[in-house]
């Protein structure tokens, strides 16, 4: 009887056997190899039962989707989401060429396609456009959708005329699973524990998915997933400005703050899909997907307003601050729970008639955000005036104070409470029908689409300074760890909330704050409705190996909205509110021509020329005016904004390497008219003497770029090495942007949020029951926002994300996996003007996950 080895040793020996290349490797019936002495026992091991190929299978599916598409697109399949250590859909998409993400608390949130703002993308779930919980933007956050709720993701970079035209950046298509995507009954589940290095917290995650086809005609697919992640981040933020006696180009850290975030982020996802295929000519379906995103966040911060003191430049980026008033040092504690949920459902079918194919769909989507409990308590240091020294040689300024008394919570006086509830409702109903007539080598297709969208945004903020004093020492906790420096004694969020529950009713606003509270409570409130009616005609002709797709789409937009004009008197004690309303209608004609040529020997050439559109953000186009006479400032919405319009040209050359590999090179050009920008002016004739902030249609923006992508299984290598999978992609952008900002006519601008370079690469290995992968994504710096001059422009610094995953199949049904995210421990970094002036540095640490998967 063979002696049993400990499980850990058995797994280690098995891994060694399958990953060690050897001249003595023996082939097994399934084509895998067992090296060295393990070869002698190969006949006793049924490797068919432990074969695992998630990377190769997902790569094959993605290549098939791209190869068969008439549009220019890239895809990720569901298996890839199991391989990558991705928290959500946004992070799964960043692996595609030309795609990057912007992050929130270290997690991917918004998807950037070809360097264009996420505001210019369209996002749909099972063909139904989804809204956004953002109060002013159109950008749909994709961190609210867990990867486990989806089957495949597609990014269409050049849509055909039968697709919605609001996709200057691209169209992101999220698709959930159908039972007919798999064979027979399928049940799979996983449990996971993830550990964040910075916080030391370990968090659970679980998912289960089931699908089955009954009598070959009726399919059911459903899934449920859950994650509760507790983590932290360390943030340092700086503001730079001129100071009395300083040189014109000498900017000093007038304000520096240390922030500590403690977050509990829950995700719940569920989907139920029903399919009925009574025969080969008819099919019907119901699709539903629900995702819930709950984010409980505690933020404590300490602020040092060095600019309030007397600043002296000492040379070599060294500064001395004298007579820093005590109230220039402040402590603030904020707590809020943000709840976002997205629900989509659609029902439709497809019928093949004698001479035509008809498909149709009705859909409904609802997106909501609730932040009902946001509050912040503010305190000011009450000790003696201080002195400080500031060293700006290290990116993040280093500082020291002449006394450590500021660290003691007992030395702070209560200043105010700020409460900031917010509610956003976004819903859309839609209906569409398409009819296609097929000929011998051609087809003609017509379609109609109606979308009826409603939004309601209510943003409130009030400052409450009248009420009992609060002893901050009663809320004291231990000093929180922070990589950037000390925040002094900690503050308890639980103690603050208990106090507010007991005594919050005793606080009110000062009379001189009445106008400011009205401004922050009413200015950003609006309701809006947007109805879109689209029709198109599209023809497809096959001429030998050439496919020609041409057509035109017409979209009519009818928009109406209500908002407020709020004017605050100079003393802040009185204000007037005037309701505003607006309605508008406009039509966009969007022609498109697509060519696809199968050149033989697995070469495919594509070309596309089309026109796309993106509508202004709701917050920009809503009618609103916020005027403060005391501050001599006014903020104005612009209901007369025109939509962005883009003329696009795409060319690509693709070489398919068997069924699993591809090499492709593409070039593209976009000329965008009416690019919308935010402007600040002191010369508006309607508001003499005021600083006026408004959005306008700027001048033209141009995007030129190239994309390269290669991925392949190296099956031609000798046995033992033939399980290698490699891939690399790169995107290069050249952008021109004229924002039309007065005083900066001679400056050259890169398009906001457009990185010049985005690279990704991966190397993986799969053999028998073992699969592992290392993946890296790099993006270069990009412009985040424009200032009054180059010295005040804000940039996001370059970033590299390195992740690792490993999967080992213990039996034919059970596997374990390990994942590591942000292995380089890279922060989110922003800088002002030049790289040496760090504006924000936020660190998250590494995250590790260990899980178990079961498939039946």
pLDDT average, as an integer? 89
Q: Which word captures the global form?
A: globular
Fraction in helix: under 10%
The Cα radius of gyration reads 29 Å
The tally of helices reads 7
Count every beta strand, where a strand is a DSSP E run of 2 or more residues.
48
Strand % is over 45%
N/C terminus separation? 31 Å
Indicate the low-confidence ranges by residue numbers.
Answer: 1-50, 80-85
Structural class: mainly beta
Major sheet characteristics:
22 strands, antiparallel, barrel
Provide an overview of this structure.
By secondary structure, the protein is mainly β. The strands form six sheets. It has a 22-stranded antiparallel beta barrel, surrounded by four helices. A hairpin with a 2-residue loop joins strand 40 and strand 41. The N terminus is likely disordered. It comes from Stenotrophomonas bentonitica. Pfam families: Plug, TonB_dep_Rec_b-barrel. It is a multi-pass membrane protein. This is TonB-dependent receptor.
List the topology elements.
Layout lengths: L6 H13 L6 E2 L5 E2 L19 H15 L3 E6 H6 L5 H5 L5 E6 L2 E7 L7 E5 L2 E2 L22 E7 L11 E6 L10 E11 L5 E13 L3 E24 L10 E28 L2 E23 L5 E6 L2 E7 L4 E24 L4 E15 L3 E7 L4 E6 L6 E4 L10 E8 L2 E17 L3 E18 L2 E3 L11 E2 L12 E2 L1 H11 L10 H9 L3 E18 L2 E23 L6 E26 L2 E12 L3 H4 L3 E4 L4 E4 L7 E14 L3 E13 L2 E6 L9 E7 L3 E13 L10 E14 L19 E11 L2 E10 L2 E4 L8 E3 L2 E11 L4 E8 L6 E5 L5 E6 L3 E9 L1
Parallel strand pairs: 6-9, 29-32, 33-37
Antiparallel strand pairs: 1-2, 3-8, 4-5, 6-7, 8-9, 10-11, 10-48, 11-12, 12-13, 12-47, 13-14, 14-17, 15-16, 16-20, 17-18, 17-19, 18-23, 19-22, 20-21, 22-25, 23-24, 24-28, 26-27, 28-29, 29-30, 30-31, 31-34, 32-33, 34-35, 35-38, 36-37, 38-39, 39-40, 40-41, 41-44, 42-43, 43-46, 44-45, 45-48, 46-47
């Amino acid at each position: 009887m063979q002696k049993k080895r400990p499980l850990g040793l058995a797994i280690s020996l098995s891994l060694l056997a399958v990953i060690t290349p050897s001249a003595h490797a023996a082939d097994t019936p399934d084509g895998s190899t067992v090296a060295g002495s393990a070869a002698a026992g190969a006949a006793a091991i049924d490797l068919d039962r432990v074969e695992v190929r998630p990377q190769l299978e997902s790569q094959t599916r993605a290549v098939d989707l791209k190869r068969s598409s008439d549009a220019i697109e890239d895809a990720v399949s569901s298996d890839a989401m199991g391989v990558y250590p991705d928290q959500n859909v946004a992070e799964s998409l960043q692996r595609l060429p030309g795609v990057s993400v912007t992050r929130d608390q270290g997690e991917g949130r918004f998807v950037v396609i070809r360097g264009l703002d996420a505001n210019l993308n369209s996002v749909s779930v099972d063909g139904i456009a989804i809204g956004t919980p953002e109060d002013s933007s159109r950008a749909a956050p994709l961190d609210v959708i867990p990867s486990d709720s989806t089957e495949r993701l597609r990014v269409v970079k050049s849509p055909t005329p039968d697709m919605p035209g609001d996709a200057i950046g691209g169209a992101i298509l999220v698709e959930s699973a159908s039972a007919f995507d798999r064979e027979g009954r399928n049940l799979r589940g996983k449990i996971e524990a993830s550990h964040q290095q910075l916080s030391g917290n370990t968090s659970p995650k679980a998912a289960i998915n089931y699908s089955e086809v009954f009598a070959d005609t009726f399919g059911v697919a459903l899934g449920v997933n859950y994650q509760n992640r507790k983590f932290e981040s360390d943030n340092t933020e700086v503001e730079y400005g001129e100071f009395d006696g300083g040189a014109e180009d000498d900017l000093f850290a007038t304000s520096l703050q240390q922030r500590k975030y403690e977050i509990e982020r829950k995700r719940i996802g569920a989907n139920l899909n029903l399919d009925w295929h009574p025969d080969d000519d008819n099919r019907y379906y119901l699709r539903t997907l629900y995702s819930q995103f709950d984010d409980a966040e505690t933020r404590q911060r300490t602020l040092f307003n060095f600019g309030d003191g007397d600043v002296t430049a000492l040379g070599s980026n060294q500064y001395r601050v004298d007579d820093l008033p005590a109230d220039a040092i402040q402590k603030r504690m904020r707590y809020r729970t943000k709840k976002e949920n997205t629900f989509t459902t659609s029902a439709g079918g497809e019928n093949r008639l004698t001479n035509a194919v008809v498909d149709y769909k009705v859909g409904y989507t609802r997106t909501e955000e609730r932040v009902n409990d946001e509050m912040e308590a503010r305190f000011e240091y009450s000790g003696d005036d201080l002195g400080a020294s500031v060293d700006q040689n290290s990116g993040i300024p280093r500082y020291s104070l002449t006394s450590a008394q500021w660290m003691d919570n007992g030395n702070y006086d209560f200043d105010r409470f700020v409460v900031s509830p917010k509610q956003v409702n976004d819903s859309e109903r839609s209906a569409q029908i398409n009819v296609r007539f097929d000929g011998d080598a051609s087809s003609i297709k017509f379609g109609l689409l109606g979308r009826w969208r409603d939004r309601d945004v209510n943003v409130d903020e009030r400052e409450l300074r009248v009420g009992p004093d609060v002893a901050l020492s009663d809320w004291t906790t231990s000093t929180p760890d922070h990589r950037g420096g000390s925040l002094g004694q900690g503050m308890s969020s639980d103690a603050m909330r208990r106090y507010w529950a007991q005594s919050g009713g005793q606080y009110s606003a000062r009379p001189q704050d009445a106008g400011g509270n009205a401004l922050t409570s009413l200015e950003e409130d609006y309701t809006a409705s947007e109805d879109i009616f689209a029709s198109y005609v599209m023809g497809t002709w096959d001429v030998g190996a050439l496919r020609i797709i041409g057509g035109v789409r017409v979209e009519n937009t009818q928009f109406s909205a209500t908002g407020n004009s709020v004017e605050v008197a100079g003393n802040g004690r009185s204000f007037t509110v005037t309701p505003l309303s607006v309605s508008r209608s406009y039509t966009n004609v969007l022609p498109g021509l697509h060519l696809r040529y199968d050149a033989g020997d697995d070469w495919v050439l594509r070309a596309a020329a089309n026109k796309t559109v993106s509508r202004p953000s709701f917050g920009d186009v809503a009618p609103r005016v916020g005027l403060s006479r005391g501050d001599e400032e006014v903020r104005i919405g612009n209901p007369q904004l025109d939509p962005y319009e883009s003329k696009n040209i795409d060319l690509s050359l693709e070489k398919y390497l068997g069924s699993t590999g591809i090499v492709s090179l593409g070039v593209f050009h976009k000329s965008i008219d009416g690019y919308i920008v935010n402007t600040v002016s002191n010369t508006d004739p309607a508001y003499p003497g005021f600083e006026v902030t408004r959005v306008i249609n700027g001048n033209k923006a141009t995007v030129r770029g190239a994309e390269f992508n290669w991925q392949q299984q190296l099956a031609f290598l000798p046995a033992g090495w033939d399980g290698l999978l490699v891939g690399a992609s790169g995107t290069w952008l050249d952008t021109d942007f004229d924002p039309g900002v007065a005083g900066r006519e001679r400056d050259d601008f890169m398009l906001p949020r457009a990185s010049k370079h985005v690279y990704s690469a991966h190397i993986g290995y799969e053999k028998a029951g073992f699969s592992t992968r290392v993946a890296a994504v790099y993006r270069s710096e990009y412009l985040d926002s424009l200032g009054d001059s180059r010295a005040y422009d804000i940039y996001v610094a370059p970033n590299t994300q390195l992740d690792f995953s490993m999967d080992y199949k213990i039996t034919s049904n059970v596997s374990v996996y390990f994942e590591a995210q942000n292995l380089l421990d890279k922060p989110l970094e922003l800088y002002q003007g030049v790289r040496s002036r760090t504006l924000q540095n936020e660190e998250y640490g590494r995250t590790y996950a260990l899980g178990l998967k079961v498939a039946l």
